Batch of 2 targets.
Target 1
Amino acid sequence: MSTNQQVSPEQRRYQALAKKHTPKPPVLRHAVAAFIAGGLVSVVGQFLTNLYARLLHLTPDKAGNPAVATMILIGALLTGFGVYDRLARLAGAGLAVPVTGFANSIVAEALEFKREGLIYGVGGRMFTLAGAVIVYGVVTAFFVGLFKALVK
Amino acid sequence: MTQYLAAFVVGGLFALVGQLLFDLTNLSPGHVLSGFTALGGILAGLGLYDPLIKFAGAGATMPISSFGNSLAKGAIMEASKDGVVGVLTGMFELTSAGITAAIVIGFLASLVFNPKA
Amino acid sequence: MASGATLRARPAPRRIGKQTVQFENPPAIIATGTVVGPLEGKGPLGHLFDHVTEDELVGQKSFERAEQMMLQNAAYTALNKAGLTPEDMDYMLSGDLLNQLITSSFSALAVGVPVFGLYGACATSAEGLGLGAMLLDGGFANYVMVATASHNRTAERQYRYPNEYGFQRKPHAQRTATAAGAAILARNGEGPRVTIATTGKVVDRGIKDPYNVGAAMAPAAASTILTHLQDTGRRPQDYDLIATGDLALYGHRLLVELGRTEGGIDLEPVLDDCGLMLYGQDQEVGAGASGSGCSAAVTFASILKDMRDGRYKRVLVAATGALHSPCSFQQGEYIPTICHAVSLEV
């Protein structure tokens, strides 16, 4: 009868009814938890940045690279040990928005599809969730760069 | 100390906006994170992301938007030297560390670990 | 040379109403086998299941194989209890949630019975009971096995996200149960009988969110239950229990409201849901259980036991299924749903 193209009045009525019976997530609690978690991740990142700047004699700018790589490692390890998803249940976007979330999506996919083999399982599925981030990052950067290059 | 405070607040704010989008809209994590990344690129083009990093340090480099910033910044920097071709050649220059780390660490982790039963 | 008039003059003798059949010699459910995972085993019905596995891998090399093992285990358990062998079975009616019904196919291979593969998603148990009863009452079989299974890990990796992904569940999301159930129906024998079967039509009331299947399926349950009551002339209170498959908390409430507003009946006094019965309040499972194994395991282990113990005399099992595919959601389609119902009586 129907696809996403047209909504019948009967469907519209039911959608409203269903919405009435659908619970709202605890927005405030989630927001506070995400703020704190995201803040803490950045604090850890700052600590690492300062550490690498001192240890490797890098400018804060350049020290960001090993700091990000370290956070990726931490995210990967927490995912591998099965701890990340439990933390994310509480922290929500606090863990998803930082680069730790990127690492988690990659490792989670690779682990889940390991049974499908190294090529198509690990290799093929690794970027199922993270791929969009890379694609839209590159495409945006391309047009921004192009614009700036031509307008100069 | 203020450096850590700034990092905490800005990093927290990025997460807060993401969380509100998760809870108040129908957007999936994929949508939100792609959007943040693209936003980073746009702010880079407007010259606004680097000042944010100067102010908040890791508060701005840890969120995924920083990835978008680095991609755009690499493209812009190389383009200013080599013209339009620079957009292509410079794209991954600044993000190379992050992407390489993600792929290598991701691969090794998948070998070492097993999904929980 | 049959004309339309001739056909209309001799309607099918066992059809009543629009979507319902009434059996002349109602077949009996003579034995059942149920196997569930550890979380389900810790739930309030844990002691009623035949086997509770130690983990979700069951010593197999993949979760898919674990699901097959559980389904086979349930089938063999039922056969042992009935004192029968696979050779005694005339048909196996089996379905599951995985692409191409792979679980059912490999299980049917192992058990070695002629098989009809079914896809009703979480409504498979009732679909199988209805069809199985038709085969028996129609004189086409002496023994029919109805079997289905679902597994949390295989369903998640097919429909949703990898297990370790840091994703915050919405409060109305349900947990796919790791459970398998098999039932043997016979033309003669002791056990609750399948007296009536109402076959559902596909219903779509505009719900897209695959994390809100309870809300998506409630209209299908309302449609089939109301049609069943109209076709049979029965009222809700003619049943000791009307059990839906896996509407869970919010779908259940929606069904009660739909019953009142669209059917003018009050289902609440007799209505329960297998998805609400499977897990305890203390278990973190969102709105409740889902999965084809949920209604099968709960019906075969708990509801039938209550009937044999005399607690219930007449039960309507109305299993509900969400018929979406992993890609239909991404294409922006609504979720088509269905509900199949069978009346069980002692």
Target 2
Amino acid sequence: MNKKINKTILSIFILFILVLGTVPFWGTDYIMFFCLLFCVYLSFSQMWNLLIGFSGLFSLGQPAFIGLSGYTIAVATHYFGLSAWSSLAIAGLFSILFALFMSPFIFRVRGIYFGIITLIFPESMLLLFSNWEYVKYAQGMFIKPDHPISITTMYYVAFFIGMSALATVYLILRSNLGLGLMAMRDNEEVANTMGVETFRLKVYCFLIASLFTGLAGGIYYIFQIFIQPQEAFSIGWSVKLIFIVIIGGIGTIEGPIVGTFIFVLLSQWLAEYFSVSMIILGIIAIAVIHLAPKGIMGTLQGKFGLRILSPHWE
Amino acid sequence: MEDILQPTLNGILLGGLYAIIAIGLSTIMGIVKVMNFSHGDLMILSSYLSLVFMTRLGVSPYITFFIVIPLMYFIGYYFQRFLLNRILGKEMDPPLIVTFGIAIILQNLLLLIFTPDARTLMTGLGLKTIFLTEYLKIPMNYLVDFLIGLGVIFFLYLFFQKSYLGRAIRAAADDEIAAKLMGINAHDIYAKAMGIAMITAGIAGILVGMTFTFYPHTGSQYLFVAFGVAIIAGLGSMRGTFIAGVILAIAQLYGGHFLGPGYQMVSGHIILLIVLLIRPKGIFGTV
């Protein structure tokens, strides 16, 4: 019975990827815009879920990578005349370097402090970038690549980044790294005693997450054309990630997919009122934690044994 | 030399205020083992509450202490009881997400209700200063903050050492199961501890409102102040909290003095990161 359901859902999933991959052939510009946002947020949320759901790292530092990546591209195209794609590659590299820089600070202390220490980084960068003449203070910068890029090209790059993020998490969970992560999440001390190098695992995950978060942030800002510190390093990114992962199902691969879809749909209506949308996202996330802590996909998995992408061992 | 004396003096006085901002956060970190992301925003909420009572009732901010403090106790008590107690224990992430969510909701609610305008609680103290020398002066409101901060921390110390509730709270923090066996209702104790933490946040909020301007989003700024002090001090040290408050305040004021006002907060962040790097347990921490 369950196998049959799982097979149906797997075919729905494959169909879904095919549909997503062919959007430029049949979709209007609006649908393409919608799917582009979906791919960007899918990379963000898969990576955040890798951190919180599988590694036990509550990171509020993701906006640092999103903003840094956007600014890297803005500076590289504006001051150095590089093309959009080579600056995107540099932005990915910078994200990893910045994650390496953060590591000695954030992995020094116990788990409950991790969140707030990671939060210090985007907040400091917001202040520094707002006071930095080179990036035009808080006024923001325009991202002008040397030659215009069609939305179709941008969409394919976003699609490629989103799918790579999905595949990376899928592969990580089926590797030794994934086994170590699960052991660590369940009981860090026992895992350590059994020879799992928890510190190294955490750093690996953090670096991988920073790379994909940076790349997705980069394509987002290439698409947006304009970047401002207030928005780029905003705590709002973290609120959105929490909402997506909590409502979809923490610690499942399917959860962030469903959560991202719900969020992008919702954001079409919420976009105009930032404050109201933050309040609504916050209230829904808190309600879900209390009423259905496993989220939509986690609850379904528990009830029907649905498992398509998430590992079978728990 | 003289231009460094004034920021140093201000820093020492401001340290008292920073200590009382931090004490509630570090109490909850030590007792409930939860990082309360909404600490700064609940503190700013009390600044706004004070402002509302001040304008509606036409009283001085000092009188609003008597209304805001009980109110903050109940806010803290029910916040812990209904939103945090039920999800404690199993994993560490859900309580963090809930306090973070509350922080975001509060910030944006305050923004919708009170608009992003700068507010302040006018006391008449703001302009008064005591001149020590021709160049060195003590701002009166900083002095009041310092003395109240010192007093609150002293009272809190006595409370945790001498009173039954204070000792029960410490017992529940040390070993929840043992405390339960001794007939202590740990969850009720946690709610009361959060209530007490919110009393300190309420006092801090009104003092901040009387000393500086505040906006709906200032809460997160004070969350970092509170966390910075708690980390520099190390958990469970009241004297340490006070000294850490002074260290952080001086670091911020020097940063503002030498690099420009835009770098004031960042200098505090940098000092915090340096302490994390060399002494992650804090300067006075024993745990």
